[in-house]
Amino acid sequence: MENYLNIDHVSIEFPTPNGPFKALDNVNLKINKGEFVSIIGHSGCGKSTVMNIVGGLYKATTGGVILEGREVNEPGPDRAIVFQNHSLFPWLSCYENVELAVKSVFKGKKSKAEMKDWIEHNIDLVHMSHAKHKLPAEISGGMKQRIGIARALAMEPKVLLMDEPFGALDALTRAHLQDSLMEIQTELNNTVIMITHDVDEAVLLSDKIVMMTNGPAASIGDVLNVDLARPRQRLELADDPQYNHFRSEVIHFLHERHARKVA
Amino acid sequence: MKDKIIAFFEVTGLTWFIPLVKLLTNDNPQLQAQTLFKMVGIPMLAIIIFIGLWHVGAAKVDTSLGQLPGPSQVWQQTQVLVDEHYAEREKEVKFYQRQQIRNAEKLAKNPEATIKVRPYTGRTTFFDQILTSLWTVFVGFVIASIIAIPIGIISGLSNTLYSAINPLVQIFKPISPLAWLPIVTMVVSAVYVSQDPMFSKSFVTSAITVTLCSLWPTLINTAVGVSSIDRDLINVGRVLRLNYATTVFKIVIPSSIPMIFTGLRISLGIGWMVLIAAEMLAQNPGLGKFVWDEFQNGSSSSLSRIMVAVVTIGIIGFLLDLIMLTIQKAFSYDKNAVIR
Prior knowledge:
The complex is a heterodimer. In chain A, the strands form 2 sheets. Chain A has a 6-stranded mixed β-sheet, sandwiched between helices. A 4-stranded antiparallel β-sheet of chain A has the order 2-1-4-5, with helices on one face. The longest helix of chain A has 18 residues, at 171-188. In chain A, strand 1 (5-16) and strand 2 (19-31) form a beta hairpin. Chain A has 8 helices and 10 strands. Chain A has helices spanning 47-55, 94-105, 112-125, 141-154, 171-188, 199-205, 234-238, 241-257; strands spanning 5-16, 19-31, 36-40, 62-67, 70-72, 81-82, 159-163, 191-196, 208-212, 220-225. By secondary structure, chain A is an alpha/beta fold. Chain B has helices at residues 2-12, 18-24, 29-58, 71-109, 126-157, 159-172, 177-191, 201-227, 231-239, 244-282, 287-297, 302-331; strands at residues 62-63, 66-67. At the A-B interface, helix 2 of A face helix 9 and helix 10 of B.
């Protein structure tokens, strides 16, 4: 199915005291069903803004987003978001966090027992069954993000949006979570948009890497098709010339063609 | 068993019992003795030094009611007040016994006789007054909380409402209970008119004064707690398409619970402080009235008795705060946060 998600000529302006600030200019992106797309760029280039528009949290000034032939202009569980800082409700246990999402999305569609199974299935998917009754404050940052992913997956989204999901984690934990995410992706084959500033992460996980120019008025600079075979293994890829080629493409884009003027 | 006891003391805030329990169960005695000394020994030492200074200092001040009482005279009066309480209770019991016997005799002579049970109208003792004070502050505090929390929540949710309420709060917040009291007294006298009043006017006046002064910390903290909620949590609610009521009850209120309890704790502290002043002027039969009556009485033991009341007020205030701290800890979802 072609053009499952269509980001069509999207521009956005934010009002500021010194007049409108144009953050995005004419962003065009077509994403197929089951594709894993990373958006990469320097900080402040409007990556997150693109995601927030797809998520419906911001409204594009001109242009729009079409998902399965329908325009989206408000947030909804069909575009579940994994936030950078996990955003779990700190007063609810891991299980209850997922439960809150499942209960509001599948109200009237699933029975109580079905909901329970579905919640546990998703917690199991991110390997968190052992700590499901703990509060977010009692588990590590990586574990919190796993639950954040479980919560988003439990909404059965058409598109999974991830805003620098592993940005706040240490390198080893990040690698673990990336492996888990690949594993889940093999199983579910979701359509995913992930914001990142990590080149390795982008190449390892994505089918397509969208590289953005610097803001203000940022737009898409280049799109790289990463046609590495799946399943991908971190270790094998480390010495893979193709992998390194993609990696250097992204690095060249970021640091040569669109280097930030002020670091 | 031991772990359960320790967990209990942790929750109740009686943390200095923990090393004691560990010491008794022989868990690294040397370390426990050290912690115990730090937690109990040092405060005790400070108290002893304070009492010593009080003893020496008080002896040098002569008032029109005699020498300023030192710790020993205050302790003596404490015992007198306890004895008075028991004596009064005994009198009460005897009063009712006498009445019962008299009524029984009356009924024996004439089974149709109407009998009356007259209530005992003896003096209120120091401990009755403590209870009155606690009840009054409780009523005032509960009314304040019932008003302040909802207003705090809605003004935290809406910037417009916040700007509307903020100046009023800022103006009313610093007003002394002594300034409110005449107004409250007049309004209560005018409005609270009934043949068979459930509460005495002095009680209503005192409680309302407490309410007026303890509203603000809860209101402000609730509003700040609600308005400083993490935007991402609200966004999660938006993604889930929760309606307004669900967002408020499932996201906004739970996330501001710790701030609400911080406010409540400050409010109760202020309420207790205000109450004593209110009782003095409104003549509500609590600790405030006790202090005032003793001051007017001006006997040689008056100053000592006032000091007993002062220490009692302090200890009760401390205990109330400890209770609130315990509740605050129980409701805090971040168990690592240091709440003192």
